[in-house]
Amino acid sequence: MSIFHLKPLRGQTDEQLMTRAATGSDTAFEELYRRYARRLKGFFFMQLGGDEELAADATHDVFLRAYEARHRYEEGRKVDTWLFTIAYNICKNHYRSNAYEAQLMASLDAEPVMDQQIEVDLDAAMLDEALAQVLSELPSTLHQLFSLHYQEELTIPQIAEIVGVPEGTVKSRLHKTMNMIRKKLKQYENK
Amino acid sequence: MKISNEQIIQSARRQRQSVHNQMDVEPWSSRPRKIRGLAAVIAIAASLVSFIAGYGIHANLQPTDVQQPLAQVVEVQHDTIMQTEILRDTVYQTRTVTRYVEKQIAQSAPSSSESAVDLELPAEQMACSMLCDNIRYDLLAQP
Fold it and tell me: Which of A39, A125, A137, B90 has its C-alpha lying 20 to 30 A from B81's C-alpha?
């Protein structure tokens, strides 16, 4: 038995908890659920059109898959990356528009990264409302990318692992997404 | 006001925070969520059906099926005697007839006929009876 089996659950890292869960501790898994369920549900709520019931189902699905695969957890692998990989795949399956999305991503990746900065003149109070609308109109792949990086605060290497593309592609897509957002926000300037 | 990328990111994080605060999280269960929901629906439906069935059975009960409390059929008759007789009208049908008759008053003195019986006992038998009550058997058995 390693030393972290003796520490209280709340003081343990996600990876230590997952290693414990992999050896049969349901309480360690419950602690992971407590840490991530709200965060994942919020992520799904924003990605799946604001449907709370759907978000609850998807969140439960993530943990169910993780629970079933807990014995295969590779020690040291980051738990948040693992959980968000499952979440990302659930979103991808939900939209079932992979052909369209793949085509969109291929054309987006083919475009050169522009260094232009689109100026947006907007009242700060208006920004929150306008951005929520703009994000919901983004292609789901770009919305997820933006959300994973800027809202869930995952690193570029983590996102590259989740999405399964090189880090450079993640960076260029994020840059293009930001330009797309600015362009769409511009429509709200005179409203 | 010119909007910077940083302001967009901050706005996105405010949105995320506001959504997270709205989210209710159920306790963890390793059972599929839909099955749990289905089980709850089945349990509610089963209890509703059993309630309706029970109510229907109760409403269709004949008054004769309901057992009356015993206290309601007890009648105290001080001066009459209740006689119950079952009469058979047909092979399949009987009826119970109840009659109330006046209670006969018990006589305090023995009747004259009872006294006469006593007097008719032979004198020898009475004497023997008196003796046998107080004398040991072995003495009586001696010639």
Answer: B90
Q: What is the pTM of this model?
A: 0.63
Which residues are B102's β-sheet partners?
A: B80
Q: Where are the domains of chain A?
A: 1-96, 97-191
A-chain CB neighbours of B11 within 8 Å are: 127-128, 131
Q: Does domain A97-191 have CATH number 2.40.10.10?
A: no
The dotted CATH code for A1-96 is: 1.10.1740.10
| Chain B closest-CA separation from residue A111 CA (Å) | 21
Please give the Cα distance from A29 to A65 (Å, whole number): 12
- Name which of A60, A120, A135, A187 to mutate to probe chain B: the one with the most chain B Cβ atoms within 10 A of its Cβ: A60
**A36 vs B117: CA distance, rounded Å:** 110
Query: What ipTM was predicted for this assembly?
Result: 0.83
> Both ends of chain A: CA-CA distance in Å?
63
pLDDT 10s digits, B89-132: 777 788 888 877 776 655 555 555 544 455 555 666 666 666 66
